Amino acid sequence: MHVRTALPIMFLALLGSSTLSKPARGELKMEKVAYFNQPNCYKLSNGTVEVIVTTDIGPRIIRYGFVGDTNVFAEVPELKVSTELGEWKPWGGHRLWAAPEAMPRSYSPDNSPIEFKLEGKDMIHLIQPVEPKTGIQKEITVTLAGQGTAVTVHHKLTNRTLWAIDVAPWALTIMKGGGTTILPQEPYRSHDDYVLPARPLVLWHYTDLSDPRWTIGKKFIRLKTEAARKEPQKIGITNKQGWSVYALDQTLFVKRFAYQEGAHYPDYGSNNETYTSESFMEIETLAPLHHLEPGQSAEHLERWSLFKNVNMGASETSLEEAISPLIKRTAQP
Which pTM does this prediction carry? Predict the structure, then answer.
């Protein structure tokens, strides 16, 4: 483990040479770049997609997209929330929190430099200093596949306090506005075949299912952003299908994550949540709650994929025909 000033000379040479050309497709490269008005970012690329993390704040993954194309993540440096712990900023992109949500604990500021460790050309490990007020330490490890669009994101929470805590790793991604979150319904079973419930649908006090941003169908739940609507909307579900999607124009961002049968999840059993307000959209996944003694950790894994030129149409039938083959392609072998 080392801070940003301790890069080996050989690796600095590699970084310097990597800036001279873009990687050919299938060729992994990592380089130090300035991005998001922050000088100490690192870009992982395989010639098809690129991922950019920052070490000036966070841990944060601030960009994911096809090389030379739109960032599917939002960049919102102007937003801020004032709390008893100081000014917290969402920044945009992907972050790690500890569930269940609480004010001010969840909003502990993470606006300072972090430590990091570089692992070859395909992996970077981001380590936040222990939060002074909560005693929680957050870590994110990002691994880019050598080919294609797959990214593996490993999250870790460690209890650095002197007492036990009950928390769950909570991975939140702020998506670029203008798109739609798509969550799967459980597969249909007739009342004649099965009479027990399929899964919880969790509502917040401000959730309004009559809001036109919602489309609740037999196979999918959809939530779209709408810049003119400031009222927030949020739901949580027990997602046993293990995937959720954000569709932006004709680009599809797919999250894959595990569901553990019988585990105790936060928020009345939610392992997948989505939230919107104006152009703000989050896709969130949660691990089960863990009872962590001092020094113990809890971990959570997400796998991401991107697809372009996906024409989903407007109906559930066309949507299913367009995305189902892609979802199957992201399943682990």
Answer: 0.91
